[in-house]
């Protein structure tokens, strides 16, 4: 062996060692049972109670960090592409709004308790959210997409409300019949209020659920007409209720301008003991900032005996009566919440309101059982392909085939190690990429071996045939790999989500392929041929 | 030595007109199918809409699923029963009105088929119409970018004639694969586009190997006519072509058989590509390069036994002097 060969061998062994070291956590992590793995995924060192536990959780988190990550298509989970509606904002504001939205959504997701969420900006005004693992999809979506524009608005007094509804009624009567003739039937004269179950008894305006859409369109009609100036906003209750044995919804006439906004909320908690009338019913208690506290004291002091509506995204959550001045900047929201809704409301209040509405433009959810199924199938397919190829290589090229198989194993190992090191994600198309890498690796060796056979047929010596075979095939292999690499790069550039996973594995695989298929297998041949007098070769 | 297809001496180029007819038939069939179907059948990825894959147990009939989904208010839903799993259904819905999320409604509708029906949503994909359009234009860009890069690389490494032959062969392969998908009424999704690009990569890989050998032979046999040189190149690399494409076909067949529904279309596209790609390596690419060369010689008005010599550099020089 020459010094150069020794160095090559040394470097190869070093590289193999590094690969094994990099892959060790992955091996450990995926040899856990699914239940144990779930536990590791949820490990939060910050939440540990003792030093020993903290250390153990930290270890688990390190393990999770270093193991190859599985894409959502393999482990199940949710992929959302959100679009921030910045149409009503200026240029600089828009840019800011997206950054802010990312931060706020990040906070909300954190509190939702998903392991390894990933949130990233995509393009101008889009945000990609990936939530791996099992979760309540509807809840996740409503939590992430909720604007959470929280406002405190005074409910109009009964007199104000009655005056407003009278004006609305006569507006529609005039618009549709030319005048508000007192001899007209009631339903025509009171086109608006007659749609309510309890017609305009002060602020108590309740509509049957079936009427809500019709009333909404009338409100929209009013809003479109600039000649009708409405000094109030009308907002529905966030929940349906039972009224006289039928389901309906309450409509509130509110002041247009809010007295205070949700930005003044410092913290919020879900609690079960807030409503004295209904003990155990979920609600949200909140604490205001110092500024908010003094504003709140002022507001409540000036409006005793009025109702203050707590409005979230233009839906009234509750409208309690102000009994007295509330000085300490604390308050609560009760209503017809389920525990989950109260929890969600507390989360969005804590993490703040989105600066602009956010829409879901793309959504992909994979159930965990399908993911598990896909992994199993992917590995079955990979194993079947690998076994078929190994058997073929061993039969067709015998000992040389074994060298090729060894190089192939190194190739796959290197590919996986590189993925772990670069923190790349293994997706289902990624598994397909590995299968294709196997194909390319085999091709490289087939090219070399066929060439060597050809040279042997031309009566060259074994050593000469090997040398010529490698040097001639090398050029072809480079060309072949580069031309396959080009589409992979195009995909990496333009592909989205899952496709990119495919392109990444294929690209890494092809690069390693050139090293292992040509370099490592040549080294083995060299080592073998230099040790003895070679007169024949098993190929 | 265990060998397949060694020492063959097939006159590939002599029969190239026969291949043109075969290619013509395959291309026409693809084109006709695409026209009849009104273009490729784009999946939810590209059109926007919702795809729901659900396991419903006990397995209902597709008609029961259809009427349940229709009752939920989705009149134009497409229902497809799982190929090897009768209790799994693919439900495709068009783009829904803004803001409504069809998945819970469909889930509830499926659950109501019979009392005690178990429903599990395996997969839900919703793509907005605008995003779908963007994904489609990105996919088209990716395909053209990839083909463009290959064209430039092959032209730089070999000869513009080979480059043209190779890229035409790639279009040929991709188009026929699309055609086969269309004939089988399969959807074109993002994954299928990835498969098409990969097969383009594989196919070009194949052609490069053949070109490489042809170039090498040309160097040694300057006096032989170009079609004979090409035949030699193809014959000498034939066993490698068969072995490589065989192993690729084997890999993708494994994916097709064991990979499950999710990569079914991917592996099908790859499988078709591997077969068509092998054929086009033998015929389309080289034959086209040959035609271009012969055409060049005819228009130069004199018969030349060799049009270029040896290395890539001198090949370029030779072609530029014309």
* Number of DSSP helical runs of chain B: 10
| Most strands sheet of chain A | 4 strands, antiparallel
Q: What is the gyration radius of chain A calculated from CA atoms?
A: 34 Å
User: Roughly what percent helix of chain B?
Assistant: 55-70%
- How far apart the termini of chain A lie comes to 23 Å
Q: In percent terms, what proportion of residues of chain A is strand? A: 15-25%
What general outline of chain A do the C-alpha atoms trace?
Answer: elongated
Low-confidence stretches of chain A: none
Brief summary of the model shown:
Chain A has 539 residues and is an alpha+beta fold. In chain A, 56% of the residues lie in helices and 17% in strands.
Folded structure, characterized:
By secondary structure, chain A is an alpha+beta fold. Chain A has helices at 3-30, 34-41, 51-66, 72-75, 91-112, 137-145, 158-177, 186-189, 212-224, 290-302, 339-351, 368-421, 428-457, 462-494, 497-531, and strands at residues 69-70, 77-84, 118-122, 126-132, 150-154, 205-208, 232-236, 241-243, 246-255, 260-261, 265-271, 283-288, 308-312, 315-318, 330-334, 358-366, 425-426. Chain A contains 15 helices and 17 strands. In chain A, strands 3-4-2-16 form a 4-stranded antiparallel beta sheet. A 4-stranded antiparallel beta sheet of chain A has the order 10-5-13-14, covered by helices on one side. In chain A, a hairpin with a 3-residue loop joins β3 and β4. The longest helix of chain A has 54 residues, at 368-421. Chain B is α+β, with helices and mostly antiparallel strands. Chain B has a 4-stranded antiparallel beta sheet with strand order 2-3-1-4. In chain B, α1 packs across α6 and α7 runs antiparallel to α8 (226-258). Mean pLDDT of chain B is 82; it is low at 303-322. At the A-B interface, α6, β16, α12, α13 and α14 of A face β4, α5, α7 and α8 of B. β16 (358-366) of chain A pairs antiparallel with β4 (118-127) of chain B, so a sheet runs across the interface.
């Amino acid at each position: 062996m020459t010094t150069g060969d020794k160095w090559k061998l040394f470097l190869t062994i070093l590289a193999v060692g590094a690969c094994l070291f990099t892959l060790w956590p992955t091996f450990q992590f995926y040899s856990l049972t699914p239940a144990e793995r779930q536990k590791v995924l949820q490990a939060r060192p910050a939440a540990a109670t003792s030093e020993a536990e903290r250390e153990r959780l930290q270890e688990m988190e390190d393990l999770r960090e270093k193991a190859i990550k599985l894409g959502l298509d393999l482990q199940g989970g949710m992929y959302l592409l959100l679009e921030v509606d910045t149409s009503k904002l200026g240029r600089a504001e828009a840019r800011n709004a997206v950054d802010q939205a990312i931060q706020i959504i990040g906070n909300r997701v954190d509190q939702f308790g998903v392991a390894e969420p990933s949130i990233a900006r995509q393009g101008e005004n889009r945000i990609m959210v990936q939530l791996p693992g099992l979760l309540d999809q509807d809840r996740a979506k409503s939590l992430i997409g909720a604007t959470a524009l929280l406002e405190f608005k005074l409910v109009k007094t009964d007199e104000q409300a009655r005056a407003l509804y009278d004006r609305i009624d006569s507006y529609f009567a005039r618009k549709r019949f030319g005048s508000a003739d007192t001899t007209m039937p009631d339903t025509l004269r009171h086109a608006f209020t007659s749609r309510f179950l309890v017609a305009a008894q002060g602020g108590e305006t309740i509509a049957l659920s079936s009427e809500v859409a019709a009333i909404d369109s009338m409100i929209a009609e009013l809003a479109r007409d600039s000649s009708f100036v409405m000094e109030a906003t009308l907002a529905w209750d966030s929940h349906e209720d039972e009224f006289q044995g039928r389901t309906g919804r309450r409509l509130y006439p509110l002041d247009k301008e809010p007295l205070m906004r949700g930005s003044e909320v410092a913290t919020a908690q879900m609690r079960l003991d807030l409503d004295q009338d209904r003990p155990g019913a979920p609600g949200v208690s909140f604490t205001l900032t110092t500024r908010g506290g003094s504003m709140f004291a002022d507001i409540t002091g000036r409006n005793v005996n009025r109702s203050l509506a707590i409005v979230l995204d233009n839906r009234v959550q509750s409208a309690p009566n102000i009994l007295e001045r509330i000085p300490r900047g604390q308050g609560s929201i009760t209503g017809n919440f389920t525990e989950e809704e109260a929890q969600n409301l507390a989360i969005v209040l804590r993490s703040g309101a989105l600066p602009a509405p956010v829409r879901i433009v793309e959504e992909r959810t994979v159930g965990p059982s399908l993911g598990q199924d896909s992994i199993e199938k992917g590995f079955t397919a990979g194993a079947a392909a690998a076994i078929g190829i190994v058997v073929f290589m061993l039969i067709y090229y015998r000992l040389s085939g074994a060298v090729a198989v060894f190089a192939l194993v190194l190739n796959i190992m290197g590919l996986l190690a590189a993925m772990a090191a670069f923190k790349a994600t293994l997706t289902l198309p990624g598994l397909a990429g590995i299968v294709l890498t196997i194909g390319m690796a085999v091709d490289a060796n087939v090219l070399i071996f066929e060439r060597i056979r050809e040279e042997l047929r031309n009566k060259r010596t074994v050593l000469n045939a090997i040398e010529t075979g490698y040097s001639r095939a090398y050029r072809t292999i480079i060309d072949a790999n580069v031309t396959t690499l080009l589409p992979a790069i195009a995909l990496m550039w333009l592909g989205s989500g899952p496709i990119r996973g495919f392109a990444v594995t294929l690209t890494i695989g092809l690069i390693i392929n050139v090293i292992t298929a040509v370099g490592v297998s040549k080294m083995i041949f060299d080592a073998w041929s230099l040790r003895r007098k070679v007169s024949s070769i098993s190929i | 030595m265990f060998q397949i297809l060694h020492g063959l001496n097939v006159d590939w180029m002599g029969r190239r007109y026969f291949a043109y007819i075969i290619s013509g038939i395959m291309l026409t069939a693809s084109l006709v199918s695409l026209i009849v179907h009104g273009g490729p059948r784009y999946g939810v990825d590209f059109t926007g809409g919702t795809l729901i894959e659900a396991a419903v147990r006990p397995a209902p009939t597709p008609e029961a699923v259809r009427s349940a989904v229709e009752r939920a208010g989705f009149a134009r839903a497409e229902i497809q029963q799982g190929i090897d799993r009768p209790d799994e259904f693919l439900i495709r819905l068009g783009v829904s009105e803004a803001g409504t999320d069809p998945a819970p409604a469909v889930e509830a509708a499926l659950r109501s088929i019979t009392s005690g029906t178990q429903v599990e949503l395996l997969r839900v994909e919703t793509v907005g119409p605008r995003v779908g359009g963007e994904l489609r234009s990105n996919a088209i860009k990716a395909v053209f970018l990839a083909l463009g890069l290959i064209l430039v690389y092959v032209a730089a490494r070999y000869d513009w004639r080979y480059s043209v032959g190779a890229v035409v062969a790639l279009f040929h392969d991709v188009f026929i694969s699309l055609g086969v998908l269309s004939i089988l009424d399969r959807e074109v999704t993002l994954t299928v586009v990835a498969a098409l690009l990969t097969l383009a990569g594989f196919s070009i890989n194949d052609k490069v190997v053949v070109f490489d050998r042809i170039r090498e032979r040309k160097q040694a046999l300057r006096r032989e006519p170009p079609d004979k040189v090409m035949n030699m190149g193809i014959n000498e690399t034939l066993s490698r072509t068969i072995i490589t494409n065989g192993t690729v076909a084997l890999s993708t067949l494994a994916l097709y058989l064991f990979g499950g529904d999710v990569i079914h279309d991917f592996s099908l596209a790859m499988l078709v590509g591997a077969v068509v790609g092998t054929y086009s390596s033998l015929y389309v690419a080289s034959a086209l390069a040959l035609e271009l060369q012969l055409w060049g010689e005819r228009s130069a008005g004199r018969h030349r036994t060799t049009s270029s010599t040896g290395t890539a550099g001198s090949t370029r020089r030779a072609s530029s002097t014309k």
